[in-house]
Specification:
The structure is a homodimer of 123-residue chains. Chain A is built from five helices and three strands, in the order H-H-E-H-H-E-E-H. Chain A is mainly α. The two termini of chain A are 35 Å apart.
Chain lengths: 123, 123
């Protein structure tokens, strides 16, 4: 969109484009979010299972991240009437629409890391 | 990668995948970075031009973001021997490899915003 500067100002169309990119960045950002999504990719999980699998995440952070993913329609939260209560988290179909993007990011990130390491070695 | 949990633990292969995704998120993240990249997409710019076009960015933040983009090989910085000195920033060929990703993010972010607004209207 950068080739559409009009009189040196950014047209509204481009601003909407940036906003849309930043919306996606916001959804995916954070150390844990992509990891939680991927972890739920293998099927629904209970809270404690998630905490065990996503090594290093604290309970407050896990709850916060799960809540954010739920608000954005990427996971569902189901409370089972067991004693004690069991809470299960499951990926929505909608969440799978992110897969091509995260795969693309993984590919770019991988080549970027290799490029940076190579350049450091040459120096 | 989520379907590859082995004994409930995340295999190293998947950890590398998450790391690669986070590397890309790190490069693109921040309110301004994508905007600066897009702005330079229309050709090289001087520092003051960038500050004018990227409305609302402060000089400290702009310098910080430009420095980060330079370190990551996405832009080049050229000092011209004018009086006073002119500094020009230009996108590298490498930076253009990010375009399919940012376009994909813009498309997903756009539909996500529309979805969220639609759901809020229904409620």
């Amino acid at each position: 969109m950068g080739d559409k500067l009009i009189n040196g100002n950014i047209p509204d169309e481009c601003k909407r484009h940036f906003k849309a990119v930043n919306d996606t960045l916001y959804i995916l950002n954070g150390k844990w979010r992509v990891m939680i999504i991927a972890c739920l990719g293998s099927g629904k999980k209970r809270y404690l299972e998630l905490q065990r699998i996503v090594e290093g995440i604290g309970p407050k952070m896990l709850s916060k991240e799960l809540n954010n993913l739920e608000i954005n329609g990427l996971i569902t939260r189901t409370t089972l009437k067991t004693r004690p209560v069991t809470v299960e988290y499951e990926l929505t179909e909608y969440a799978r629409s992110l897969k091509p993007l995260t795969d693309g990011m993984a590919a770019w990130g991988k080549q970027h890391r290799e490029k940076v390491i190579k350049e450091m070695t040459v120096k």
